[in-house]
Recover the amino acids of this structure.
């Protein structure tokens, strides 16, 4: 039975879990994959051979270091290299190293929701690239961007890598890009990493690896509900399922209930009923081509200045301006 009286939620997580599991069809947001265990599983995904995205972006940075850093330095003077959702900074370190060795006047400003991630990044940079000035900001992209903007007038180069934009629906991506644009000056750059449309099988393999790491990552959202909201999901009774539509370029992840079952979520004081093979939609990972990117840029008032790709054209980094 669902509780239909007005419920007071203590956190957005509680509210979204309740709404998502009482909706039809059911859904949960992929932003909740990332607790400590989820962060670790995502690191494992990035290291898998099937997950070509990370290697492709890494190779773009390695093969085009000079051109990319020259673009960043084009206007001269001090600039802030801001990274939205920095993670372990592995790819960015290639650029940081090159900039620092060539005497660029810049400050690296990684933004991440997780202080844990930022501490790790700070420690590894202090060891590997001690000359790079770093200023970390914990928070959501916009809180942190706004704060950085208010406190500093330096030129900005904003990095949004790893096809993170692909986890947003087109409307959300446009809203996001518009908000980034509002914080940009004429001379600022947005450096955007996006996965490309390709052989559909390559995409399905990347999001449904045989070792089951992606399945564990997807199911981690249920484990989180168990741990944080007193849920009793039996994660083995759900199947990780991936589909890819080559026309729209949208990969979608689901958790599929293997049987009729009832799950109690203690903290929310409600029970979610699942029919056999009922789905919970958990994530989209959008794939793009130049036309989609041009359309997104136009809708959000940005212009594509140039782009970089890897030898197999699996992935692209676009440079955008206001
Ligand atoms: C973080 N994000 C860009 C990843 C992606 O490719 O959509 C998350 C992920 N989901 C499954 N595998 C990786």
């Amino acid at each position: 039975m669902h509780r239909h009286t007005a419920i007071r939620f203590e956190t957005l997580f509680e509210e979204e879990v309740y709404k998502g599991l009482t909706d039809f069809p059911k859904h949960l947001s992929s932003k909740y994959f990332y607790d400590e265990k989820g962060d670790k599983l995502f690191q494992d995904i990035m290291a898998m051979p099937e997950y070509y995205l990370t290697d492709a972006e890494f190779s773009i940075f390695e093969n085009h270091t000079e051109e990319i850093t020259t673009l960043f330095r084009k206007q001269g003077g001090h600039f802030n290299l801001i990274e939205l959702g920095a993670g372990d900074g592995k790819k960015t370190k290639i650029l940081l190293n090159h900039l620092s060795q060539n005497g660029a006047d810049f400050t690296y400003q990684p933004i991440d929701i997780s202080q844990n991630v930022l501490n790790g990044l700070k420690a590894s940079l202090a060891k590997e690239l001690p000359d790079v000035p770093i200023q970390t900001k914990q928070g959501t992209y916009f809180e942190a961007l706004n704060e950085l903007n208010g406190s500093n007038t330096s030129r900005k180069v904003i990095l949004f890598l790893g096809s993170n934009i692909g986890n947003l629906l087109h409307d959300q991506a446009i809203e996001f890009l518009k908000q980034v644009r509002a914080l940009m000056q004429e001379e600022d750059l947005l450096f955007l990493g996006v996965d490309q449309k390709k052989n559909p099988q390559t995409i399905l393999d990347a999001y449904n690896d045989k070792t089951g790491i992606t399945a564990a990552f997807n199911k981690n959202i249920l484990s989180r509900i168990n741990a944080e909201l007193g849920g009793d999901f039996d994660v083995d009774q759900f199947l990780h399922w991936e589909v890819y539509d080559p026309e729209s370029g949208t990969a979608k992840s689901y958790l599929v209930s293997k049987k009729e079952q009832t799950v109690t979520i203690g903290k929310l004081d409600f029970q979610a009923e699942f029919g056999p093979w009922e789905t919970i939609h958990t994530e989209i990972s959008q794939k793009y081509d130049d036309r989609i990117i041009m359309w997104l840029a136009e809708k959000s008032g940005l212009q594509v200045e140039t782009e970089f790709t890897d030898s197999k054209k699996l992935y692209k980094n676009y440079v955008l301006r206001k």
About this structure: The longest strand covers residues 238-245.
